[in-house]
Amino acid sequence: MNPELLIALGAGVGAPTRYLVDQQVKKYHRSLIPIETLAINTVGSFVLGLTVHQSHSVGYILGTGFAGSFTTWSTFAVEAHHLIKKHHKGKAYLYLALTLVLGIGAAAIGNYL
Question: How many helices (H) and strands (E) does the chain have?
Answer without folding.
Answer: 6, 0
